[in-house]
Each structure stands twice: as C-alpha cells, then as structure tokens.
Amino acid sequence: MLLIIIVGCLIFFGIYKAVPKTPVEKTPGGEAIFVNDVILENNIAFFRALNKQQKLQFENEVKEFLEYVQITGVNTTVDNLDKILVAASAVIPVFAFPQWKYINLEEVLLYGDTFNTQFETAGNNRTIQGMVGTGYMNGKMLLSKHALQEGFKNDSDKNNTAIHEFVHLIDMADGAADGLPEILLQKQYSLPWLDMLYKKTKEILAEKSDINPYGTTNEAEFFAVAAEYFFERPDLLEQKHPELYRLLQQIFKQDPEVLLQKGKAKTGRNDLCYCGSGFKYKDCCWNKDQQVTA
User: Fold this and answer.
1) Residues in contact with 72: Cβ distance below 8 Å, sequence separation at least 6, in sequence order
2) Which pTM was predicted?
3) Number of domains making up the chain
C-alpha cells in the first residue's frame, strides 16, 4: 500500500514518467510513427520467418528508412501501417545488404487508388499502380495505397507493386535503368542474367510462360516483374523457372522459398494487436481487417 502511494506521488509531481510500450519514430516531416515487432509480425510474412537477430535488423532498417524518406498522402489518409508497409517493401529486396540506402529517393507519394500519367486520381485511363518519378518528380515514388496493401495481404499471387518499384530504384542505383543491377550482381553472373532475361522474354511473347507479360516492356521491367515473382511466390518460381530462381538468388543473396515456409502463421485473434494498442487483436483491429479483406 505504501509503495502504491509513493509511486502515485512521484507520478503526480512528474518525477516518474511511464515509458511508452511502443517505440516512437519521427518521419522527415516530424510526424510520429510507431514501429514494433508486433506490427511487423502480423503484417509481414517475410519478417515472421526471420530469426531473432534478423528481426531486430529488419525492424531497425524499417525505422532508418522512415527517418530519411517522407511518406505523403495525395487526396487520401496515410496511417501508421501504410508507412510501415512502404518501408518494409524497401527493406525486403536489399535485406542481405544492411548498409543499403536509397540515395535516389526522398519522398513516397501515396494515392488512394490507381492514377494516370498526369497523376490524376479521377477520370479515364487511371491504370497506374506505381511508378518512379522522373523530371520534376525526380526523387519521388508514386504508389497506389490499395495496391500497396494488397501486396501484403494476397499471398497467392505474384504481385507486389511496392517491391516492384523499389527494385526499379535498385536497378537505377548504378546510373542506368537497364535491368542489370551492377551494384548487386557479381560480374560473372552478368552475362548469364542477360541471357536468361532475353530467353524468358521470348517465352512470354510466345505465350509459353506464366511470368507477367508486362515484363516484356523492356529489360528494367522484366527485372522488376521477376523480382516480384521471386519475393511473392518463390515456391512457384523455383518450380517453374529454376534457373531464373537461382540467378535471382545470386542477385539478392536471399532464398525466399525457405522464408515463405517459415512465415506462414499469422497473429491469432487472441494475440496482441499489431497496431501496438496493447489490446487483443479480436478486440481491436480484427473487424476492420475483415472488412478490408472482404
């Protein structure tokens, strides 16, 4: 009883301060953002598969990304989870390169849904889900918030728009968007990679491949499409395109098929909610997530 009275007095006089349960980060714009392992565990299959040390690395890299890249909503709200999903999309492809920093990116613009080449969210020809800005939009990435969220909710397709766009930035880090990420790829694999790229492009054009036909647009798009497939459905890619899978392993220095099997389980209804509220998932964000999924 005496201890309770003492603690109460300390709180009243401001001597003792409660420590927040959830780590608080600041974005370049000064907004607070909450990042912890509960949020990552429930929303990122890649994170769930990591060991304890790797999880700490992933969490730190997410925080670091959010410290130097601004995330802004365009005619839409951007919540805590949206920012974390953007950061996770950036970290996943370069996770084997802990010192990596996206020096060619300052801001990510999140649109509510698809947009057109004039960056309009209303009217016709709104087919774009993501793109890396050029010209006066240099240093910016544009993403559909809906596509961003779907990339982490749908485990059965081969698509993740945000990862696709970050792979473009990786490709461009050597000064050219040519589908040949020289910074990541060792020289002895450059020719085999280019040979594979042209071989698979021919298969797609001949309608003898399940790889997204958008990959035939150019070499850069093939690399980004193949990387999406590699991180989203590594099991299927390894089964149908084993040589391509092995070359992507050499580029990204990862084996996502192993991670996929480890990361299947999600947080249960009686576990702590991913938002960091301290409430059980079923009493917090579960109903909202069911509505979005439906």
Assistant:
1) 29, 78, 107, 108, 109, 110
2) 0.80
3) 1
